[in-house]
């Protein structure tokens, strides 16, 4: 599938499920939202950019701590749903811009903070996304990235990504931590803090959030039930009476700092 076709699939998928993502516990809750603020220590003078804002949860969390946050998403319906949720929460310093994460419509060095949470596995060109993050981030600016990641072992990674794509055709690929690190460091984004955690999902809400049919849900469940022992162990699969109950995936959260600020120059001196 070509990049433009992938992006149309993403827009179709998220357009019709926009409200589900606003309400999704996986996206709306989580200690990572509070930890994000703790790690970045944002200033009220800073401008922030949230890429692929989805239900607007990051924008809503950051808004009280910055002067302005620009929330972008490829899908107009997602932006509308995020805007409505933020208005209900009385959050007003958010601007909404429909934009492609791989070609951002902003000038160089426009933001002190850039964030992207649980979205990058939908991007067909991760390298272009990371280049754009670095371009729009000010020197010594902070980039907070959170996404599902695949294991380093290639055959296990292939299975995890096939499973995700069977569940959600707009899924492109979960990269491994080492792949993301390579992209970040190549673009002057230096990891400062990181954490990995296991996220456990109840099968039905997880599969139904993106499914088109009961046949699709059955195909995903069959993949899990037919998985190898290694795959089931990695996923922490639990079953009851021959049906999948829960499974888990890896999530990586990392705070990067863009090389090139005054502090970096002082350290070289």
TrEMBL record:
Methyltransferase type domain residues: 49-145
Pfam families: Methyltransf_11 (PF08241)
Keyword Aminoacyl-tRNA synthetase among record annotations: no
Residues of the signal peptide: none
InterPro entries given in the database record: Diverse_substrate_MTase, Methyltransf_11, SAM-dependent_MTases_sf
Entry superkingdom: Bacteria
GO biological process: methylation
Claim: Transferase is one of the keywords in the record: yes
UniProt GO MF annotations: S-adenosylmethionine-dependent methyltransferase activity
Keyword tags: Methyltransferase, Transferase
Family to which this protein belongs: Belongs to the methyltransferase superfamily.
Protein name in the entry: Methylase
UniProt organism field: Brevibacillus formosus
